[in-house]
Amino acid sequence: MSLAGVFHLPAFIRAGTGSVRWFWNRRVGSVETNDVILRAWSPVLYPWVFKSPVLIAHGTSDSRVPRVQSDVLVTALRSSGKSVLYLVMPGFVHEWDDHQNQQRILALTEFFLAQTLGGAVESPAPHEEWKAFLR
Fold this sequence. Notes:
With about 140 residues, the protein is mainly alpha-helical. It has one domain: 3-Layer(aba) Sandwich (Rossmann fold). About 45% of the residues lie in helices and about 10% in strands. The protein has 5 helices and 3 strands. A 3-stranded parallel sheet has the order 1-2-3, sandwiched between helices.
């Protein structure tokens, strides 16, 4: 399960500017000197290794991690025949500040875990409905 994750480190770091790029270069690795390692840590490049179903959620207004990071991973996983639930939440930003979308994510997570691991799931309340946001 991932909410607004980074799945292709070199592409994410290259697109960064200012203090964001400085932070990632210093803390994670520079594309110029660590490209091989960054690629090894980028799951979008290895979709066939996923063994379990995947739940990914991303907001349309996330300015910290571009939604293309999730779009590309979802495409790679589906192209490899993997099971993916992908929730795209309108207006949701990286900081989880929208209560209604938080409730949608939690309701979908409950459904996903029950479907994947077994067990009961409660029907979502009207404000928790998530099916219209699946991609």
